[in-house]
Amino acid sequence: MDLPKFPVEGGCQCGAARYRLKASPLSVYNCHCKDCQRFSGAAWSMSMIVKDSDFELLSGEIAQYRKTADSGNAIVMNFCARCHGWLWNDPPAPGIKVVRAGTLDDLDWAAPVGNIWTDSKAVWVQIDPAQVNFPKGATDRTPLFDAWTRSTHKDS
Ligand SMILES: [Zn+2]
Ligand SMILES: [Zn+2]
């Protein structure tokens, strides 16, 4: 997949909360944990890992919700305070945000390279064995970062 010209933007459904992504994310993958299923209302949610320094909130008021993830870690979830659209999580790992990739204005370039929490996926969801997959959470995200780098920097 070819990367777009950065910066790119995204935001919530009502348009109040807008953000800018200044550089490529470190990875995009699907999370099949029960929390993501509940919050997204879908079988999985698309997680896009970005460096804090590459993410800029341009407008909007943010409402926060603190929860304990399946992994046992405390996570801060960030929503548009007006339409309550789910925008990003602040994970316990410092320096990164997990942005919901579906909030990008254009997500054609953001094809996921792997899956986490496949142990709790719906039985009818097919996982591509050629991707980087984890039965539970990825304590070390390096394989997901490497897979993203491979998919976006085609050998030439
Ligand atoms: Zn909104
Ligand atoms: Zn999840």
3D architecture notes:
The protein is mostly beta strands. The chain has one domain: glutathione-dependent formaldehyde- activating enzyme (gfa), CATH 3.90.1590. 12% of the residues lie in helices and 35% in strands. It has 2 helices and 11 strands. A hairpin with a 5-residue loop joins strand 7 (74-80) and strand 8. It is globular. One zinc ion binds at residues 31, 33, 35-36, 45, 117.
Strand content: 25-35%
Q: Given the helix and strand composition, which structural class is it?
A: mainly beta
Total helices: the number is: 2
Mean pLDDT: 94
Work out the oligomeric state of the chains in this entry. single chain
Whole-angstrom Rg: 15 Å
- Give the helix level as a range of percent: 10-25%
Q: What is the CATH-assigned architecture?
A: Alpha-Beta Complex
In order across it, which strands form the biggest sheet?
A: 6-7-8-9-4-3-10-11
* CATH class (first level) name: Alpha Beta
Which descriptors would you attach to this protein?
about 160 residues, globular, glutathione-dependent formaldehyde- activating enzyme (gfa), eight-stranded mixed sheet, 2 helices, three-stranded antiparallel sheet, mainly beta, binds zinc ion
Short description:
The protein contains two helices and eleven strands.
Record the SSE blueprint:
Elements: E1 8-11, E2 18-21, E3 27-31, H1 34-40, E4 45-51, E5 55-59, E6 62-68, E7 74-80, E8 86-90, E9 96-100, E10 114-116, E11 132-133, H2 142-152
Parallel strand pairs: 3-10, 10-11
Antiparallel strand pairs: 1-2, 2-5, 3-4, 4-9, 6-7, 7-8, 8-9
The chain binds zinc ion (2 copies).
One zinc ion is lined by residues 12-14, 16-17, 80, 82-83, 85.
